[in-house]
Structures are given as C-alpha cells and as structure tokens.
Amino acid sequence: MNYIELSKEISYALRHAPWEYELEINEEGWVQVEQLLDALHKDEKWKKISEKDLITMIEKSEKKRHQILNGKIKAYYGHSIPIRIVKEEKMPPEVLYHGTARKFTNSIREKGLLPQSRQYVHLSQDIETAYRVGIRHDMRPCILKIDAIQAWKDDIKFYYGNEKVWLANEIPSKYIVEISC
Fold first, then answer.
1. What span, in angstroms and rounded, lies between the C-alpha atoms of 137 and 102?
2. How many whole angstroms separate alpha carbon 59 and alpha carbon 3?
3. Is the pLDDT of residue 8 over 80?
4. How far apart are CA 108 and CA 116, in angstroms?
5. Are the C-beta atoms of residues 91 and 148 closer than 8 Å to each other?
6. Rounded Cα distance, 51 and 40, in Å
C-alpha cells in the first residue's frame, strides 16, 4: 500500500474537488468515511481500501493532513473549494514563520501575506517546516518571521491547523520580517 499516494488522493478529494468524488462536505470540512471509501472504491487502484488503511495513512503521515473522528474524515488545511471551511480561532504562539519564493517578497512587503488560491494563509510553527514549504517553490526560499502574538493582539485572527501549521485570513506586512532570503 502506498500511503503517500493515498494521502495525496484523499487530500485532493477533500481539499479541492469533493464534487468529483460526489462527496457531501459540511461547513467544517467533514465527510462521512463510508462515503469517501465508496468514492475511492470506484477506482480499481483503491478498490480494497478500508477505514483501517485510512487510519494507518494518517498515523504514518509526517505532515498530519487528515483527521478521522466519529465515522467522519477531514483535511486539516489547504482547501481551495468555494465553501469556506470554518476553523477554530486560537491564540497563536509568539512567533510563526512562512517559507516563500524570492520572487514573491516584493508583493509581500507591499501587501502582506494573502491566501492567494487557498482559503487561508499557511504559517509554520518552526523555521524547518517553513523552509520545507518554501523550497517547493524556490531552491533558495525566503523565510519570513511573523510577530504572531502582536498581530493577534491587534485583532488578526489565527486558527490552529495542526502541530506544525497555523492559519490566518491574512498577515499585514507590518508583522513580517525577512530573516533569510
């Protein structure tokens, strides 16, 4: 079983194209596990997938992208679907980070961090995670430091994604410092 490939398939289904799988997704992003399995079983490749396989996929995943609870599954973050996935607002850690391509830094200096094609701006809890995100877009990514606690005190809303990812609607540039570029 290729759990990385399965994780990517499920991420695509839950984050970007639930209608392609005929999934009914609620406002918190949850889908019935049985409904997801039925959709996956239509593809010969995933014919034998079970809930146990989904649980194993989540446990083996380094990035913790999904959660199963009470017969339902959801993606924690990364949604591009037109319905807004409701997240629980939380006080962030003092500092968060964002890895990005150098070509975006002028725009970020001018406009801050915006969600672009996603529903939220994704922030990392540590520099290493921000670097891994940034390197997907640039071999020498810029790492940005976010004064999250000051932004929060100034009424910028933050949402918990998972133990390494935080989300925000946007981050104005006054809370952002480039620490490497």
1. 9
2. 10
3. yes
4. 12
5. no
6. 11
Q: pLDDT (tens digit, 9 = 90+) per residue, 92-133?
A: 999 999 999 999 999 999 999 998 867 789 899 999 989 988
Q: What is the Cα Rg of the chain in Å?
A: 17
Q: Mind giving me the DSSP string for 17-42? A: -GGGGT----TT--EEHHHHHHHHHT
Give the confidence band of 57 by pLDDT, cuts at 50, 70, 90: very high
Q: What is the pLDDT of residues 110-120, one digit of tens each?
A: 999 998 867 78
User: What are the residues facing 142 on neighbouring strands?
Assistant: 100
What is the DSSP annotation of 93-157?
Answer: PS-EEEEE-GGGHHHHHHH-B--TTSSSEEEESSHHHHHHHHTTT-SS-EEEEE-HHHHHHTT--
Quick one: DSSP state of residue 173? G
